[in-house]
Amino acid sequence: MNLYFAPMEGLTGYVYRNAHRACFGGVDKYFTPFLSPNQNHKFTAKEEKDVLPEHNQGIPLVPQILTNRAEDFIWAAEEMKARGYREVNLNLGCPSGTVVSKYKGAGFLARQEALNRFLDQIFQEVDLEISVKTRIGIAAPEEFPELMEIFNRYPIRELTVHPRLRTDFYKNTPDWESFGYAVKESRAPLCYNGDVFTAEAFRSAAARFPSVGSVMLGRGLLANPALAERIRGVEEAPMTSYRLAAFHQALYEGYCLAIPEERNVLFKMKEMWTYLICMFPEADRYGKKIKKAKSAGEYEAAVAALLREREPDPRAGYRATL
């Protein structure tokens, strides 16, 4: 079974990937937060840094591209090829209002004829493997069969299906019936994505769809960085406060080097703790101290107290109510 780390905008950039890869195992591929090429064919400085080969040494990485213009996708794919990448991923899943309003991400699913023309052009002109990450539609699961018919026309390297609608965002439960339809109909190899927060949830999904060879983990891995190891049954390196402290230190130092302003470093770390605190049930008071820290010293003291006084529970998963 292949285990992938989902692209999480603002969270899983190169600093995070390097810290995770150094401290934990079990992940077969990482995907970048989306690159959004503009009509001037330029990446932002942040995007450029994120895909630099020297920032991703030893990391099996797939750049993800967000656009609805074939010429922009083709340009971005060629840029990735020049940097040594062998696969790019098309984002048809982002539900953000600002993205969808431009008919990008999940919004592109509403324009099926345009999507078909887009795919036809990029598969003719891009000399790289192209994988796709998609939702099942905008507002109704009845949209999915037509989308699958379009996808089946092209040699997609792998189709990752997050079986939610755009209108679901990340609420409600995954639509198992629609994913089952993909299992029966897809000509491309499938990857499942959605609400795999624990090893038990993984086993349930794997048992339901035994022919699916890949699973993409997102919020579950952010909440428990050792989740992929736990799924694989790795017992020689259990999650402990000491091990989590080593990961935290690598991440913290990485952000301090990459981000000049202390307050922005703290913002990034606090955002990560909205997930990491899930491993510490009934530790809300520690989480509040971390969230309220106004200086590096206050932040470091709050984290040290948590890791000194509490052990993480490796069975815990992301709590969607946070």
UniProtKB/TrEMBL annotation:
Signal peptide annotation: none
GO molecular function: flavin adenine dinucleotide binding; RNA binding; tRNA dihydrouridine synthase activity
SUPFAM superfamilies: FMN-linked oxidoreductases (SSF51395)
Cross-referenced Gene3D superfamilies: Aldolase class I
Enzyme class: oxidoreductase
Cofactors named for this entry: FMN
EC number(s) reported in the record: 1.3.1.-
Residues involved in FMN binding: 64, 133, 162, 218-219
Keywords linked to the UniProt accession: Flavoprotein, FMN, NADP, Nucleotide-binding, Oxidoreductase, tRNA processing
Entries under InterPro entries matching the protein: Aldolase_TIM, DUS-like_FMN-bd, DUS_fam, tRNA_hU_synthase_CS
Location of the active site: 94 (proton donor)
Domain DUS-like FMN-binding: 5-237
Family: Belongs to the dus family.
Role this protein plays: Catalyzes the synthesis of 5,6-dihydrouridine (D), a modified base found in the D-loop of most tRNAs, via the reduction of the C5-C6 double bond in target uridines.
Name the record gives this protein: tRNA-dihydrouridine synthase
Organism: Enterocloster lavalensis
